[in-house]
């Protein structure tokens, strides 16, 4: 794999990390629309079995490492910036992800080899599931602004571990926002604080849960792709279509010509970035 291919994977990982840091945006959905969902989940699911097989291990790590580094780096470096943009410029920020989705729809649709009645049922079921999750609107969840003040205990570490497992499952499954789930569980602000302060024990507890959750869910996803590919991808397409609608912000909440111009700009940037990465992926293959 050449430097350009690694760079593309790294950049996609950064976008996935940014998505995972924003409540209401699904990192799994973004991985899918960026064209690396299938390869990434397969590599992660096969990683434990390839530890004693150097060639297989290297092939899997060629995907996992650049994507993982990009995701982690973007969260560590830009978490505060992402949170600031999402709170203070929510319309242009959401519109950016709308642009990403719009630019990737042809690629997503082409992943479905054959449309049949089961595919249509899966599509509408995915749309329904995403519609249910759309009710968990970020604006309806009021932040207390209070971070964890107590001493780190074993019980709190176990709670963070469980939160990590649940968040990882949400990150892998398209349409479900891991950060929104953490917000619902009351730990989003605490985790953002721990990352900002580089508090090792809480981050390690959460990280262990995330790793285990990703490994388990990735195995399930890989099995479904091998047995029910068209149905699974139709299900995901339904999720993506509705997530496009649910991501579209209420422009009345942030009026003004500046917001309008920024929104048009971020829409174009997201759309062009999606097209650009798709073309790089084609050249690589």
How many whole angstroms does the radius of gyration measure?
19 Å
Mean pLDDT: 78
Please give the share of residues in helix: over 70%
Number of self-contained structural domains: 1
Q: pLDDT under 50 segments (min length 5)? A: 137-146
Please give the count of helices. Answer: 11
SSE arrangement, N to C = HHHHHHHHHHH
> For the terminal residues, how far apart are their CA atoms?
11 Å
Query: What characterizes the major β-sheet?
Result: none
| Percent of sequence in beta strands | under 5%
Q: What gross morphology would you assign?
A: globular
How many E strands? 0
Counting helices, strands and paired strands, the structural category is mainly alpha
Question: What does it look like?
Answer:
There is one protein chain. The chain starts with a helix and ends with a helix. It has 285 residues and is mostly helical. Helices cover 78% and strands 0% of the residues. It is built from 11 helices and no strands. The chain has one domain. It is globular and about 50 Å long.
Defining traits:
285 residues, mainly alpha, 0% strand
Short description:
The protein has 285 residues and is mainly α. It has helices at 3-21, 27-33, 37-46, 54-88, 90-110, 117-133, 154-172, 178-184, 188-197, 200-247, 257-284. 78% of the residues lie in helices and 0% in strands.
Secondary-structure topology with pairs:
Elements: H1 3-21, H2 27-33, H3 37-46, H4 54-88, H5 90-110, H6 117-133, H7 154-172, H8 178-184, H9 188-197, H10 200-247, H11 257-284
């Amino acid at each position: 794999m050449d430097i350009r291919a690694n760079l593309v994977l790294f950049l996609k990982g950064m976008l996935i990390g940014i998505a995972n840091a924003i409540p209401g945006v699904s990192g799994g959905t973004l991985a899918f629309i960026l064209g690396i969902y299938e390869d990434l989940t397969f590599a992660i699911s096969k990683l434990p079995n390839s530890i004693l097989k150097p060639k297989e291990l290297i092939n899997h790590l060629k995907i996992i490492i650049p994507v993982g580094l990009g995701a982690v780096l973007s969260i560590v470096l830009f978490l505060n910036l992402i949170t600031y943009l999402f709170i203070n410029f929510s319309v242009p920020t959401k519109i950016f992800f709308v642009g990403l989705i719009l630019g990737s729809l042809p690629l997503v649709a082409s992943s479905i080899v054959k449309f049949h009645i089961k595919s249509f049922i899966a599509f509408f079921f995915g749309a329904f599931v995403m519609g249910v999750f759309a009710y968990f609107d970020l604006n309806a969840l009021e932040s207390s602004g209070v971070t964890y003040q107590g001493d780190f205990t074993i019980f709190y570490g176990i709670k963070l571990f469980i939160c990590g497992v649940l968040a990882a499952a949400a990150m892998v499954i398209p349409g479900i926002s891991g950060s929104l789930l953490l917000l619902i569980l009351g730990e989003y602000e605490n985790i953002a604080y721990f990352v900002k302060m580089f508090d090792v024990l809480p981050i390690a507890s959460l990280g262990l849960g995330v790793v285990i959750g990703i490994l388990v869910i990735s195995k399930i996803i890989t099995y479904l792709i091998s047995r029910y590919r068209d149905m699974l991808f139709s299900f995901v397409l339904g999720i993506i279509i509705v997530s496009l609608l649910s991501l579209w912000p209420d422009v009345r909440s942030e009026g003004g010509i500046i917001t309008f111009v920024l929104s048009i700009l971020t829409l174009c940037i997201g759309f062009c970035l999606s097209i650009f990465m798709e073309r790089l992926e084609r050249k690589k293959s």
